[in-house]
Amino acid sequence: MPELPEVEALADFLGEHLVGREIARVLPLAISVLKTYDPPVNALEGRTATGVRRRGKFLDMTVGDDLHLCVHLARAGWLQWKDSFPAKPPRPGGKNPLALRVRLAAPETGGFDLTEAGTQKKLAAYVVRDPAEVPGIARLGPEPLDEAFTEDVFRELLAGERRQIKGVLRDQSTIAGIGNAYSDEILHAAKLSPFKIAAKLTDEEMSVLYRAIGDTLREAVERSRGLAAGRLKAEKKSGLRVHGRKGETCPVCGDTIREVSFSDSALQYCPTCQTGGKPLADRRLSKLLK
């Protein structure tokens, strides 16, 4: 799933390639992709893209003076920029991963496709007058790279929080933009168990975790800056230390990276760095094995 650093890079890329250009056609090709009907999607046609920004894990493209195309790429979605398209439009349906196409007006011949692999169709596009009309944007918590996200703000968010810290970091209504991969990376950097209860963190652990959030995300943003959309997935994977690296060697201590699997996701961690050398039981409400 694209998270804050990749979506930030996509917003920068679209800012360079899309802003200032007129949209000729918006063609939905998957019935599940459009989540709004008023304004209609064709209201974007004939208008000029005037801005692109990231909101949590959402892309917010301003079109004209008063419309927004907001996109959430979900787990298996992606944005593919095309310098040109075939004259014949694609056909909807079948096993085609193409969900929505945005084609620019002449003399431009390109634009972008939104695609989604797999059978779970969760990629979402919204045409709205105000991004706050999108439920996922309306409930977003603070942005972790904003200057306003101070350590005091972070401590207030965790005060009385009885959930495991892994879940807290992934909750978009608590902190915007962090998903499964970067929460693993942040907790590894902070040397914290993913199952530690947030409210039980010591003052020192809170400070270390706060710094790890900023450092991890800023480093990832810098690695992704300036890359073309097609290179962002590979860059993300190459920069991860523990996430997706089950069975590999921890780059910090040399222990073997382990995994806890859930019904629809998995987390990775280093026992030596994060859990005092003890492996975590591989079930949803795990406790340290005795």
UniProtKB/TrEMBL annotation:
PANTHER family: FORMAMIDOPYRIMIDINE-DNA GLYCOSYLASE. InterPro entries: FPG_cat, FPG_N, H2TH_FPG, Ribosomal_uS13-like_H2TH, Znf_DNA_glyclase/AP_lyase, Znf_FPG/IleRS. Residues 2-94 form the Formamidopyrimidine-DNA glycosylase catalytic domain. It comes from Streptomyces coryli. Residues 241-275 form the FPG-type domain. It comes from the Bacteria. Pfam families: Fapy_DNA_glyco, H2TH, zf-FPG_IleRS. SUPFAM superfamilies: Glucocorticoid receptor-like (DNA-binding domain), N-terminal domain of MutM-like DNA repair proteins, S13-like H2TH domain. Keywords: DNA damage, DNA repair, DNA-binding, Glycosidase, Hydrolase, Lyase, Metal-binding, Multifunctional enzyme, Zinc, Zinc-finger. One of its GO terms (molecular function) is DNA-(apurinic or apyrimidinic site) endonuclease activity. It catalyses: Hydrolysis of DNA containing ring-opened 7-methylguanine residues, releasing 2,6-diamino-4-hydroxy-5-(N-methyl)formamidopyrimidine. Its cofactor is Zn(2+). Belongs to the FPG family. GO terms for biological process: base-excision repair. This is Fpg/Nei family DNA glycosylase.
